[in-house]
């Protein structure tokens, strides 16, 4: 599998508007202990400042903001690392969020990988602003939690700030015996019930082997580009 072109990491320093497109940024905030948006705490202010930087740069560069969410242990972080050609042998649960900027053809993808534990799902709303593409990752082998998965997805799709975002559903862990096929996942998640104006696609994949990942991102990037760069 051919990895996307990574951008050189600069850890421990806040992104500047001049170097965000040339740096891979990592943030892993322990969300349960962070001040809530109502508290107006430092963490919230930092997030909003970073969003402001991204909005300003996006006007000048071909950037796309991708929000990657799903239940815990669905494989979100593994997918991000895999497409970037990084080691996936040891993955720690994402207790807050990770941000990675990846060069993809002529575009820069700002991927926000947000933790999916039940206790922090209420914080997802903090990351909806300016989202171009929504990636929902499903553990296709976790039959027991598919009802929960469907409910959380449809709650997200009701959000006005995500109304125009392209939706890519990754039916992950296809390499595991007993995993449901993408068509079966689509039925369980009731994807056909979505608003007809929503652009969406479901792709079977394995974050472990990398199969299907580039196929999914190819569709997502092309769909976003056809909307936000239509006049170029």
Q: Count of helical segments?
A: 5
Query: Mean of residue pLDDT?
Result: 81
Percent of residues in β-strands: 15-25%
CATH architecture: 3-Layer(aba) Sandwich
Full CATH superfamily name: P-loop containing nucleotide triphosphate hydrolases
Largest sheet: 7 strands, mixed
- The arrangement of helices and strands along the chain is EHEHEEEHEHEH
The Cα radius of gyration reads 17 Å
- Overall SS class: alpha/beta
CATH-defined topology: Rossmann fold
* DSSP, total strands: 7
What would the principal axes of the Cα set say about the shape?
globular
| Major sheet: arrangement of strands | 1-3-4-2-5-6-7
**CATH first level:** Alpha Beta
Termini distance?
Answer: 31 Å
Runs with pLDDT <50, length 5+? 5-42
Overall structural domain count: 1
The helix fraction, in percent, is 25-40%
Fold blueprint:
Elements lengths: L4 E2 L35 H17 L4 E8 L5 H8 L13 E8 L2 E8 L18 E7 L6 H12 L8 E7 L9 H7 L11 E5 L8 H16 L4
């Amino acid at each position: 599998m051919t990895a996307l072109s990574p951008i050189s990491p600069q850890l421990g320093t806040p992104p500047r508007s001049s170097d965000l497109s040339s740096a891979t940024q990592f943030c892993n905030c322990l969300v349960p202990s962070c001040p809530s948006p109502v508290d107006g705490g430092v963490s919230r202010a930092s997030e909003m400042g970073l969003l402001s930087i991204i909005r300003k740069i996006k006007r000048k560069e071909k950037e796309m903001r991708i929000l990657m969410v799903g239940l815990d242990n669905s494989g979100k972080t593994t997918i991000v690392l895999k497409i970037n050609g990084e080691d996936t042998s040891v993955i720690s649960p994402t207790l807050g969020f990770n941000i990675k900027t990846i060069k993809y053809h002529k575009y820069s993808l700002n991927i926000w990988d947000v933790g999916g534990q039940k206790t922090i799902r209420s914080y997802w709303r903090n990351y909806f602003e300016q989202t171009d593409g929504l990636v929902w990752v499903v553990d296709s082998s976790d039959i027991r939690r598919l009802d929960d998965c469907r409910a959380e997805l449809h709650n997200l799709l009701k959000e006005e700030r995500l109304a125009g975002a392209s939706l890519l559903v990754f039916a992950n862990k296809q390499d595991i015996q007993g995993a449901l096929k993408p068509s079966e996942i689509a039925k369980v998640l009731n994807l056909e019930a979505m608003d007809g104006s929503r652009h969406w696609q479901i792709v079977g994949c394995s974050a472990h082997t990398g199969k299907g990942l580039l196929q999914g991102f190819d569709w997502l990037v092309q769909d976003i580009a056809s909307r936000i760069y239509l006049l170029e």
